[in-house]
Amino acid sequence: MSFKTYFIACLLQFRAYFGWLPASVVTVVMLVTLALIAFYASHWMTRFLLRLLSREGSTVARKIVLSTRRSVRLIIVLVVVISALPAASGLSWRTTQILQKSFVFIAILMVGYSAIKAFRIMTEAYLSRISLSEHHDDIIVRSHQTQIKVLQRLLEILVGIITVGVALMTFDSVRNYGVSLFASAGAASLIVGLSARGLLTNLLAGVQIAITQPIRMEDLIIINGDWAWVEEITATYVVLRVWDWRRHIVPISYFLENRFENWTHNSAAIIGIVYLYLDYEAPIDALREELQEIAKTCPLWDGKVLDFQVADCDAVTIKIRIIASARSALKSWDLRCDIREKMIKRIREDYPEALPRHRLGMVTAHMGREVTAMGEDEISPPIDRPPPRPHSKLAKPTGPKGKG
To answer: How much is the pTM?
Structure first.
């Protein structure tokens, strides 16, 4: 004799013992009693598992049991009640079928819900362990975070769709509709594909981003001229956090169809540039030594790249280009500001002749006289003026009209 047959026989004996009551009342009392027994049995089972897991030190399994205990208790109660429905002769056949399908529907939904919660706890535990591990560069951590988070959301959507679909198939009307839908799979797939084209595009883009990873969690990218950090990657969109705490909500397919800058794709280290505009009298060698002293006392500099170059010049100033490397983009920004402030302070205090200035030379030329050579105290070169021409206002009048 199988367990199910023995269980049904026990229930029939229970009903026979209370034969003096109406059949419907006996059935309801029987089902409620079985539900209470299953509930308290699952409660004691949960407490026993929690004590056992606390002794073994399994934190992840303990969290899974704590988060899914209510849904698991409900599943156990529903399974027991569904198993007892064949012995519920006090109810009509239609009522029994409705209760059975409803309980199966709820049980399937609870199974899918419990599976999603358990998978979410396992992924969070894995990400926490990865983030707490020591790495010289956080590229590995952010790569794992991106893959796990994107795949987690895709799996949750997939499990949710399958769970709801299986639960709905318990009803005859929905099952018949599903069969007819599969029979016309070509037209149905075309209609669904056209109506959900944007959703499917973003879902497939999410899978591709999880594999190729053009962006990762906490990557620093440039979008629409703004610095932004990748704060969250969902199955269909990406949340970008701007430096002033604004948020850009961008479809995930954008990062596969458009160009953008990723400053932390292979490494968080970056080289920053500082420009200074100085006078031609600026002592280049002395300022280069000043830069070396400033960089050595700055903790933001990583000690790898540092240079001082004359990048360009014009009629008034020379353009100084300073490059310095830092471990991240934020540190590079602070490093550039620090170098710029300290270099300006040193130039203003120790080398004021290096500050930009405009030169204006004034030479007084007498009419008809040659300008003498420039002396030592003069600041402008000599001017070789051509002699006045006849049409010039400076020319002396000649001829009959000039005799006057």
So the answer is: 0.55
